[in-house]
């Protein structure tokens, strides 16, 4: 798997490169701003781009804008955004445009090497990875609606689903059996009035409804 | 050891020296440092004479050719009007006189630019200045001219022997006993010199006091200006503190935080890759990794407490959502602002919500809380409510007093409504320019 990294802080860039290499990714380009990132992606067509949200020249949302362009122009390149803090609007922007191959994590998660590698692989494989902090912050926005009908446990399961985890991953996190997770998920689908379609699609819809972007 | 008495030394001869010194001081007293107050009186008299001369010019020139009504007009109305119109200029002249002659700075009675003549005429400061130019000033100058006259007379009398020496010799022959008579005159002159000097000083002091009151700002105006100055300097201080917090936040973020993340990444890599190390070494690495991550968390918490980057970059809405998301109870946040308030006001609002929610979690035993931020005209309204047990005391040690101080530093108000049994509603109003 080939990766491109866009990060203006040299220290962090070196760290992320090491983690990527350890996880078996080949880092084909390291850049420091959004423009250079787009050029690099066009040239190398990597499997994944790891992108800092805040980069020169404006130090605002250069990374998010570049990510939206990448996902639109080169849909085969997955994007994992790293941010110093949670801005739920970015997450909403990204998720309303894409429901796959996208991730949004806080920078400090890179330190949890194994989990970060997990998230990298998941996103590169077409999944999603949302920082738990993003998820709980989006929850603050949900004022009322079908989500209020969920039990606290079901809500927990949905949060983990939104984070991009599989049933097995959720079961591991909550220390319950996989069948219990499946039961919770079915209850969630029912309570959110989601149409009976294939499970993956319903999963995405549930998450989107949870995040308030659908 | 026995000492001879009185002990030999300079002290033995002190008495006669002392007398000489006293005498010298007595004779020189009228002149020492007299130049400035005397020139102050002279300039005061000259200014008033100048005013009198200019004001009486039309009177001198046209009086004979007019009827009595016209004469009255010229004699009273025109000089009066002239002085009134020249009032601001006269004030400047007088302030200059105090500044250059006595080193007394009479502060300007106006907060900013000098008002235009119509406003000046209507203002209290204008009225006070006119009183000085029309009444106090002339009276003081009149007294001043008497004092100056006293100086001249005293000087002449003291130097009477000189004058006698100048007159023809036969005058002395015609006036036997003039020698004794002249001694009396000299003594009287010396006394008058003292009086003139004392009177000069007293008059300078009186004029200074009068002018400070009449030409400077009144007590009320002084206080108003002081309040204005203090408000300005406090705003500057609050802004500076805020800017400093932001700078520290930037430095921490660009420096220590990045380094710590890098350290934690390296330790994490070591933990993940060095699987063939002895169990003990792996434990140490694991421990170090955990501690590095904790340090990152602690530093992020510290940075958030200083001035979170999200507040500066994105404003109150995402910053408050962040606080709410980290709170252990559900917190609903509603921020409705057409535009961003000033950074200082944003910072105060952020810390109010942050502290208030900390209080809610610590003391209120609430199951949920709600935060709304709205703008009404020039007021930013921040309301934090919870469904807890209530009974919060604004003066108690719950951090509310500190909050109130922070709010007051930007001229905001904080009110707490917290009946025992709840709910608690904290309402904060902050000034904000739309």
Summarize the structure.
The complex is a heterodimer of chains A (214) and B (434). Chain A has 214 residues and is an alpha/beta fold.
Strand order of the largest sheet of chain A: 2-1-3-4-5-6
**How many separate structural domains of chain A?**
2
Shape of chain A: globular
First-to-last CA distance of chain A: 32 Å
User: Tally the helices of chain A: what do you get?
Assistant: 10
Class by alpha and beta content of chain B: alpha+beta
Largest interface summary: A-B, 33 and 36 residues
Instruction: Specify the structural class of chain A.
Output: alpha/beta
Give the oligomer, counting copies of the same chain as homo and different chains as hetero: heterodimer
Secondary-structure arrangement, i.e. CATH architecture of the largest domain in chain A: 3-Layer(aba) Sandwich
Most strands sheet of chain A: 6 strands, parallel
Question: What are the SSEs and their pairings?
Answer:
The complex is a heterodimer of chains A (214) and B (434).
Chain A: E1 2-6, H1 10-22, E2 26-31, H2 34-44, E3 48-52, H3 62-73, E4 78-83, H4 88-97, E5 102-106, H5 113-124, E6 128-130, H6 132-141, H7 152-162, H8 167-174, H9 178-191, H10 199-211
Parallel strand pairs in A: 1-2, 1-3, 3-4, 4-5, 5-6
Chain B: H1 14-28, H2 35-62, H3 68-85, H4 87-102, H5 117-122, H6 124-158, H7 160-166, H8 169-174, H9 178-215, H10 219-273, H11 279-306, H12 309-314, H13 316-326, E1 331-336, H14 343-364, E2 369-376, E3 379-386, H15 400-408, E4 413-417, E5 424-431
Parallel strand pairs in B: 1-2
Antiparallel strand pairs in B: 2-3, 3-5, 4-5
Helix pairs in contact in B: 2-3, 2-4, 2-6, 2-9, 4-6, 4-9, 6-9, 10-11, 13-14, 14-15
